[in-house]
Amino acid sequence: MPYFDAASSAPLHPVARQALQASLDEGWADPARLYREGRRAGLLLDAAREAAAEAVGCRPDELVFTPSGTHAVHAGMSGVLSGRRRVGLGLTVSAVEHSSVLHAAAAHEAATGGAVSEVPVDRYGAVTPDTYAGALREDTALACLQSANHEVGTEQPVAAVAEACRSRGVPLLVDAAQSLGWGPVEGAWSLLTASAHKWGGPAGVGLLAVRKGVRFAPRGPADERESGRSPGFQNIPAIVAAAASLRAVRAEAAAEAVRLRALVDRIRARVPELVPDVEVVGHPEHRLPHLVTFSCLYVDGEALLHELDRADFSVSSGSSCTSSTLTPSHVLRAMGVLSEGNVRISLPAGTPEAAVDRFLEVLPGVVSGVREKLGAPAGSGGAGTVAGTDGVGAPLVVDALGRRCPIPVIELAKVFGEVPVGGTVTVLSDDEAARLDIPAWCEMRGQEYVGEQPADHGVAYVVRRVS
Amino acid sequence: MPYFDAASSAPLHPVARQALQASLDEGWADPARLYREGRRAGLLLDAAREAAAEAVGCRPDELVFTPSGTHAVHAGMSGVLSGRRRVGLGLTVSAVEHSSVLHAAAAHEAATGGAVSEVPVDRYGAVTPDTYAGALREDTALACLQSANHEVGTEQPVAAVAEACRSRGVPLLVDAAQSLGWGPVEGAWSLLTASAHKWGGPAGVGLLAVRKGVRFAPRGPADERESGRSPGFQNIPAIVAAAASLRAVRAEAAAEAVRLRALVDRIRARVPELVPDVEVVGHPEHRLPHLVTFSCLYVDGEALLHELDRADFSVSSGSSCTSSTLTPSHVLRAMGVLSEGNVRISLPAGTPEAAVDRFLEVLPGVVSGVREKLGAPAGSGGAGTVAGTDGVGAPLVVDALGRRCPIPVIELAKVFGEVPVGGTVTVLSDDEAARLDIPAWCEMRGQEYVGEQPADHGVAYVVRRVS
């Protein structure tokens, strides 16, 4: 039963399980106490901190444990924003950060009125160092950039952005949740956050590293634990398991990365061959070794996930934080790529080749089944199946109001054959996804996306047939 | 090796261990995902929530899991203070709350300027419902009261205070960290918080119950987990273990409470007989079954703990949050009782009678050893050993500047025999503990504490010999 969603949460690594069980007897007491049980717990905590710091590439006294990666991000961001308040309230983030970063940015904006600048990304989901540097201002207190994107796997130019930040005196927080298991983050970052359950450690453990010299003032109520940066009683057995498994995962990382990269390459190459009308998104080379994302035209993402689950494949669609909403993932939107029928595959360490082969066998039937149910154009569908006509007729209007993704695009494709070359078709839609998917359809089909204009109900998206 | 500090953290209950191990295979995936692994994790989480809610006495949808009791307190307090901002910024707490409550109160005061009223306690550490009710004002947004005190075990009149709050429309948050394993909290509370590692569950799990109808607006960045009240990926195996062990501990609670209460009664009765100059603090009847606290004159708490640890007894002194500082515990200070040589004993479930007997054998020698090293007055010491003289001589001054607890009290006791009945002695001290311990000494010795006055250095504490 192949689980292909390691980027959400990885199954517990055997070393994590072993370390957890071994430390249940010694790790339950309060490490701040001076008696025997407390000293033992304290020793475990110290050793875990040293191991984790070594893997991160920082000093043990620069690293604290938090209850999750989300807490690490929230604490790291608010600590710098408070500590550098005299510099200003400016905050710079990439447009494709994890929702925990964007939520903290929104909370900062709401609470202080500080301006948040979002750095745009290219079609692969990457920022460029120059664009990022251009977003830094005099009053920028903090900059945030993920090491690699959680939805499409694209690696960010962290070292170059860190250098740009350093030269302007702005601390850079790197959210390394998706990459820390694969290796340390290079470059002169100032803060780093991560989450143990992403590399096969237990849930309940995040890491926050803050380099010496970074002005940091914890916000909100604190206590004396974890250098005053993460309040609450530490879960030491989980922390021990997190550190032990990080070390174990790192020992296997180089070889496993090569192996999984080959499997992902196979998916990247084969899926567009096996399934018509697919767009593979994310950078083809500068990417996480285990993660690949693609979108399928004329497919409802939830239905696709459901059918894949029935076929025993567990995958995700965009970010967990948006999969239950009606809006497409903010990452895909920022990239300007097709969002419908989006599938993210992230292979856990140890995924056998046969599981990937089986996925490639199953996928075409699953996609065509979903398309059939939706009444999508068959084959490579759309414009190609109808003979073009010359001359410009009356403009065609497709009313897709009240219909959800992927119906507006399906309806567009269905009528497109009737549009003469040079003529336009207007799609009326009140579905947020249409704003992303209609231009993406035009790009995939080589047709011209004219633009959108307000309509009595919803929005009118105009497409011109050029071939 | 008897561990007598269950109030800090209890060893893992066998049921918690079992449940933890059993759920490691099923509880690692994201419960928000719709695929098989996610659904399984979600089912575990739902079942744990139902079990915990039943033990708390609330609806499952009123209960969220947090990463610790501290997080539950912080989230609960800030949520109500934000949600009821239109009512006002007033916050009422007892003077003997856990530091997590007091830290959140201080953060509230610092961030918003809202006034915090501290309700005083009696010599047993309890508030009275009338005094508490009198502290509620028009602009009181939230009231907090622990179910039982963590340092001295005294139970608070929660049901009466809850009624007083209810009649004034003020929600009451009950910190039930120390008592939830023994039973549900009675009365019409509005919010309740607790911490699993206090009842033998794993660390990393707190509970926050918020009754329907309480205005609640989570502060700071949130996500979609735990009803938006506790962000970050849930640690489901730990949550399952917490709920299972709460149920198991409750099944044993009635019988174990009777057994431990008898052991604690024995300590309460025997310690003052076996060790001279001891004050047992906390309510003799309205108290937690497993906890007893006493203070020993002329004894340094840290030295006492160290010697008890050498004799294989793990106990604590006051709150963990103050044991490493130079100031006496805020609880003992609020009670106005002796703080020097303070020992808290909290028996974990299953503590054998023989361990308590052995403690009572060991304690007298340990205390007299510490006293001897400090040069404390022997036997019942102090005034009793010197014949009183009539008439008032020149006022005696003891310079204890720069000397830490318990030295100022020891120096007072040493010279007290030279003071004629009716005469005074002045102790100069710059140690915070003297403010508490010199009046406490007077009470124990039946002498008159005249008062304090500022001095060139430190404070002058004046004592009159009356017998």
Secondary-structure map:
Two copies of one chain form a homodimer.
Chain A: H1 14-23, H2 36-56, E1 63-66, H3 69-83, E2 90-94, H4 99-112, E3 116-119, H5 129-134, E4 140-146, H6 158-167, E5 172-175, E6 191-195, E7 206-210, H7 236-274, E8 278-281, E9 291-296, H8 301-310, H9 330-335, E10 342-346, H10 353-374, E11 396-399, H11 407-416, E12 424-429, H12 432-445, E13 448-454, E14 459-464
Parallel strand pairs in A: 2-3, 2-4, 4-5, 5-6, 11-12
Antiparallel strand pairs in A: 1-7, 6-7, 8-9, 9-10, 12-14, 13-14
Helix pairs in contact in A: 1-7, 2-7, 3-4, 7-10, 8-10
What does this entry show, briefly?
2 copies of one chain form a homodimer. Chain A contains 12 helices and 14 strands.
Based on the model shown, name its key terms.
14 strands; 467 residues; 3 domains; Aspartate Aminotransferase, domain 2; four-stranded mixed β-sheet; seven-stranded mixed β-sheet; homodimer; 12 helices; Translation Initiation Factor IF3
Q: What does this 3D model show about the protein?
A:
The structure is a homodimer of 467-residue chains. The first copy, chain A, is an alpha/beta fold and 467 residues long. Chain A folds into 3 domains: 14-249, Aspartate Aminotransferase, domain 2, CATH 3.40.640; 254-374, Aspartate Aminotransferase, domain 1, CATH 3.90.1150.10; 382-464, Translation Initiation Factor IF3. The first copy, chain A, is built from 12 helices and 14 strands. The first copy, chain A, has helices spanning 14-23, 36-56, 69-83, 99-112, 129-134, 158-167, 236-274, 301-310, 330-335, 353-374, 407-416, 432-445, and strands at residues 63-66, 90-94, 116-119, 140-146, 172-175, 191-195, 206-210, 278-281, 291-296, 342-346, 396-399, 424-429, 448-454, 459-464. In chain A, the strands form 3 sheets. Chain A has a 7-stranded mixed β-sheet, with helices on both faces. In chain A, helix 7 (236-274) crosses helix 10. The first copy, chain A, is globular. The two termini of chain A are 45 Å apart. The relative contact order of chain A is 0.12. Mean pLDDT of chain A is 93; it is low at 319-323 and 381-391.
